[in-house]
Every structure is written in C-alpha cells, then in structure tokens.
C-alpha cells in the first residue's frame, strides 16, 4: 500500500515524500480513508504509531478540497492537545504536511502572552492546534469563534483527562457546532474515555492498531531493583557503564527533576531538566538542545515530556516509576518509534512495588529484573507478575536452630529470577511502605 492508493492529492504526496514517509503506518492506512470519507473516529493508537499524520493529512486534504474560506477570528479545524509541548509538536508536523497547500495553521497554549495569539487569530486560521485552557480564554475574549468549525481532533484524550481537563472539555463541547466531524485519539481506553467518546462522537469507526494498553514491542524493557537512596548513584554507574549518549530520564516530581539534574551537573555531566514550573521558553530551549545532542541527559516529569518527538531516541530511563500506570506506556513510547528498537530501563525501589505491579498488569507482561552488582537493595522489591499479584512481605525468618536441623527459611520468593541468592539471606524485614504515597514522609 502507498499513500497514493489511499487517495491523497499530489501536494500532500509530495510533502510526505520530502519527509521520507514511504509507506503508510497501520494507523494511517485505516484512519486516512475514514477521515476522507467524513467518518468520526475513535482510535486507540499510542505515540510513535504515526497517528499525527493519520488525522492531519486527510484533514488537510478535506480543507483544501473545499477551498480556502476561513472567516475572521475563526478556525475550520481544531486539534486539542493536553500540553504545550504536544501542541507545538503537532503543529510542527501539521505545518510540514501542509507545506505545499494554501492553508494556514497556528498553535495556541497557555504560559505565554495571549495578545500575539489574539492578533494572529484576527484573520482566522484553517487548522488551530490548542491546549484546552487557552482555547477557552480566547473564546471568552471573543478572539475565536467556533461556528465555522467542521472538524475537532482530541489528541491524547486520555492524557487530557489525566491532567484534569474534563471540565474544560465539557465547556468546549458546549461551544462547538453540533454538525461536525470528531476524531478521538487515545493511547488507552478507560471508562472515562469511553464516556467522553459516547458524548462527543457520532457513530465512530473504531481503530485499534496495537493491542490495547500494550507497550510497543520494539522496546526492550527491564527493571533494576535498588534502594531508593541509591538511585542517583546507580544511574550514574549505569550511564558510565553503558556509555549512554542520549537519555531521556523520567522523575516523578519537579523537585526530583531538579535534584537529579543538580547531582548530574555537579559531576560534570551534561544534563538539563524540564518540568511545569519552568517557563515555556526554557523548556523549549532544553528540548532543542537535547534534540541537537548539546545536552546528553534530559530529565523530565510526565507532563513536561508529553509530546516530545525525538527521532531514534535509543534509551528511556524511569528514575521513578509513574504513579499512573498508563504513563509508563507514554514514557517508553519515546523510544522504539517508527519501527526502531529502543530500550527502557526502570530503577525500582521497594516503595514502588505496587506501581510496578500495576504496570505489569496493564502491559500484560512481567518485566525482567536485572540486579546490578554492588547495588542489590537492602529493602528488597517483592516479586510481581502480570496477574497483579505482589508477593507479600514474608514473615520474619526464625533464627536457625543451633543444631542446624529443621529450621526452614522460606526466602525463596524474595530472590528475583536470574539473580544469585545471597550466601546469607538478609533477615532484616522489609519496611512496610505506604503505596502511592507521593507526599513527604512524616517525621517520626
Ligand atoms: P507520531 O506517532 O505521530 O508521533 O509519529 C511518530 C514518528 O513517526 C514521527 O517522527 C513521524 O514523523 C514518523 N512517521 C509518521 N508516519 C510515518 C511514515 N508513514 N513513515 C515514516 N515515518 C513516519
């Protein structure tokens, strides 16, 4: 199959050829004809599947065929994204696909001045990419009317809900014309997403390009168990040992990002961080420097990393596991893109065992554990598997009888597969840890 057989017009075929796209990806092969036929779509497609071209290319064709006729302060198509970074990324892709077409495109998002955006919208734009909050602001200030809107795209809809945009989406829903085409893309399909789809979509065509909630199988994934306090040290050790050149690292909190970046920079390692507290321009600069390999290690929170599209990213490291299991899929979707192979390594401490279990259940696989010599944790990470079972804390082993006879020590469950049992199993009981407690620990 080629893009030409999907019925795309010549200026789009030329743009795709310039970008080096030779064959449609599975999501493109299914979405392009459906969108051209005017259908609503509900697509389960994770990052890295080529979903952006899947909706943007046919959308551009529909708008071109109708002729350029956007009214002042209007948009003919709206693409809603959860974060500024994704909005920028999607807009950059849309502009590339539209390079030979007489259409206008623009991206609006919060965190930057609204006035230039209002000015730009005066003439109207054919395709507007927006984050929900800024879109509502522009609408309320009469800078944007939506009565000419014919297509709405909800990109990474699951993420928009995770980030708490459900109220904004409900508001936007009320602002939309009833007659429109709606395309919903989501990596995962929770009940909330299905409810949203039920409200917003009309007889949608369902597209599922990879088994739902299963991470890209081009990514080699494993876990290194370690004590929490030794994570920075282990990271540096693995980095040196593996001669890592370009790594995207995920930390759970903004403070976590800053602390790791400080530590790495203190060791003379070329690292930078992005998170929601940093101004947009700083985040973009860090990202650009990472993409151009001026920065070797980019540490990010989930929100800030959303929409990063870095070609051939070889390695993603989860310095902390994500609180929401779906984020694991998004994180590792940064590597192994467009058929390339990638690696995703997670540094996991005993506190994170339930998060690990949730990830294994979601991705329906037991992640391989690899012990790093000299970093074996004192607080062992209990065994987990894809069934969601966490092997509970064992009873404190009884002291072996002096005779050396019958004193059974059932520590077998605590030894990871592939790991050599310590010659003298630690009898220190594992601390009972609050699960998913991300707040500061109370002083005793
Ligand atoms: P996406 O899932 O839309 O974020 O796309 C992931 C990456 O795949 C981007 O870098 C796209 O430029 C690239 N890509 C999308 N479609 C194709 C294609 N048909 N052939 C080659 N690369 C593609």
Which of globular, elongated, flat, extended, rod-shaped describes the shape? globular
Beta-strand proportion: 5-15%
- Rg, nearest Å: 24 Å
Counting DSSP H or I runs of 4 or more residues, the number of helices is 15
Describe the structure.
The chain has 444 residues and is of the alpha/beta class. The protein is 34% helix and 15% strand. The protein has two domains: 4-208, Rossmann fold; 219-391, Rossmann fold. The chain has a seven-stranded parallel beta sheet, sandwiched between helices. Strands 10-11-9-12-13-8-14 form a seven-stranded parallel beta sheet, sandwiched between helices. The longest helix is centred in the first third of the chain and has 16 residues, at 51-66. The chain starts with 9 loop residues before the first helix and ends in a 75-residue tail after the last strand.
């Amino acid at each position: 199959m080629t893009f030409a057989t999907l019925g795309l017009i010549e200026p789009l075929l030329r743009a795709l050829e310039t970008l080096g796209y030779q064959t449609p990806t599975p999501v493109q092969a299914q979405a392009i004809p459906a969108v051209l036929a005017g259908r609503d779509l509900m697509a389960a497609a994770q990052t890295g599947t080529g979903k952006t071209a899947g909706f943007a290319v046919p959308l551009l064709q529909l708008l071109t065929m109708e002729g350029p006729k956007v009214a002042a302060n209007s948009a003919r198509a709206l693409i809603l994204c959860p974060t500024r970074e994704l909005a920028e990324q999607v807009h950059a892709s849309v502009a590339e696909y539209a390079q030979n077409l007489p259409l206008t495109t623009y991206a609006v998002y919060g965190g930057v001045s609204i006035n230039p955006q209002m000015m730009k919208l005066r003439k109207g734009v054919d395709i507007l990419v927006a984050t929900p909050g800024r879109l509502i602001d522009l609408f309320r200030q009469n800078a944007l009317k939506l009565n000419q809107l014919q297509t709405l795209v909800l990109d990474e809809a699951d993420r928009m809900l995770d980030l708490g945009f459900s109220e904004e989406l409900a508001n936007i829903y009320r602002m939309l014309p009833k007659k429109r085409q709606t395309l919903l893309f989501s990596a995962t399909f929770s009940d909330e997403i299905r409810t949203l789809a039920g409200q917003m979509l009309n007889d949608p065509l369902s597209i599922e390009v990879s088994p739902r909630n299963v991470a890209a199988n081009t990514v080699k994934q494993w876990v290194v168990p370690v004590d929490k306090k030794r994570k920075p040290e282990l990271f540096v050790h693995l980095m040196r040992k593996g001669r890592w050149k370009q790594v995207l690292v995920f930390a759970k909190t903004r403070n976590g990002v800053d602390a790791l970046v400080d530590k790495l920079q203190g060791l003379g390692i070329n690292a930078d961080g992005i998170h929601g507290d940093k101004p947009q321009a700083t985040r973009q600069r860090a990202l650009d420097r990472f993409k151009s390999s001026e920065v070797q290690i980019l540490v990010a929170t989930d929100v800030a990393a959303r929409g990063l599209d870095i070609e051939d990213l070889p390695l993603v490291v989860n310095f902390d596991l994500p609180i929401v299991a779906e984020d694991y899929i998004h994180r590792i979707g940064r590597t192994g893109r467009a058929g390339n192979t990638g690696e995703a390594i997670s540094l996991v401490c005993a506190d994170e065992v339930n998060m690990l279990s949730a990830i294994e259940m979601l991705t329906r696989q037991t992640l391989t554990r690899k012990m790093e010599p000299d970093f074996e944790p004192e607080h062992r990470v209990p065994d987990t598997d894809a069934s969601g079972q966490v092997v509970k804390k064992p009873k404190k082993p009884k002291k072996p009888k002096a005779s050396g006879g019958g004193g059974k020590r059932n520590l077998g469950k605590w030894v990871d597969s592939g790991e050599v049992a310590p010659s003298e199993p630690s009898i220190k009981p594992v601390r009972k840890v609050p699960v998913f407690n991300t707040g500061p620990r109370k002083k005793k």
